[in-house]
Design brief:
10 helices; 18% strand; seven-stranded parallel β-sheet
Length: 261
């Protein structure tokens, strides 16, 4: 199967490309690094030529609603339009568990993701939307986002994170299956409070920042109820536990850390 992976050089994209190629698929790696820009349309004709499935694991560099919405709307509209012209039969997009709830209550980045999902649902194209929980690789980024003067302030929200490799496996299985025309959820096997796992993660990296619970703390600019990051009862549970991920050499999102340097 010929599969075009949009965002194919990112955290999930690289893992997804490797997995699909190992399964024998003809994979097109599409990202700005390979000369393909889904937002401007540059290179999309060539990237999608002959593709049966399009997988969008790209992401916005911006968390504010206006900028994120501009990216996701423009990029998704291009992917749907160019995909239809190329005869793509299955549009797959990676999104976030809780997007619908957080879009209604908080807006921001999640409103932009919800708008992206609406475009896909209303396009008339065959699709599957993968909702994944937060990645282990982003725990350090959660700490950084909540840090002020060497104190990390986090809400008491509960989450159920998963390994990036498991996210890639979930997206690969969805992409190589038949379109389900709905959202499918995937989550890690364990629940943690944000401050619990962030504190543990920082200590394992010899990072001595003080981690505190703060009812006013925001999650990437968003207020959280206790269970808003949790999946529903029908979610598929990924196999990798946090301790096993760490023991296997788990590390933070190096791509983002290098981008900041």
């Amino acid at each position: 199967m010929r599969i075009a992976v949009i965002g194919g050089t990112g955290l999930i994209g690289t893992r997804l490309v490797a997995r699909l190629a190992a399964e024998g698929h003809d994979v097109v790696v599409a990202s700005r690094a390979t000369g393909v820009n889904s937002y401007t349309g540059e290179g999309l004709d060539e990237a999608l030529a002959g593709a049966e499935t399009l997988v969008d694991v790209s992401n916005s560099d911006y968390l504010d609603e206006a900028a994120a919405n501009e990216f996701f709307y423009g990029s998704t509209l291009n992917l749907l339009t160019y995909g239809a012209a190329a005869g793509v039969r299955h549009h797959v997009a990676l999104s976030v568990v809780g997007t619908d709830r957080l879009a209604r209550t908080e807006g921001g980045y999640f409103a932009a993701k919800a708008a992206q999902e609406r475009l896909i649902r209303q396009s008339g194209r065959a699709y599957s939307i993968v909702h994944a929980t937060q990645f282990f690789e982003f725990i350090a980024n959660i700490a950084d986002a909540g840090t002020n003067r060497n104190v990390v302030r986090l809400s008491r929200a509960v989450f159920q994170p998963m390994a990036a490799d498991d996210v890639a496996a979930a997206v690969a299985a969805t992409a190589t299956g038949v379109p389900v025309n709905r959202v499918v959820e995937f989550a890690g096997p364990e629940q943690f409070r944000l401050e619990e796992l962030v504190r543990r993660h920082l200590r394992e990296r010899s990072d001595l920042r003080d981690v505190r619970v703060d009812p006013l703390a925001r999650y990437f600019g968003t207020d959280l109820d206790e269970d808003e990051l949790l999946p529903g009862p029908d979610a598929t549970i990924a196999p990798t536990r946090y301790a096993d991920w760490l023991a296997a050499g788990g590390r933070p999102n190096v791509e983002l850390e290098e981008r900041r340097a």
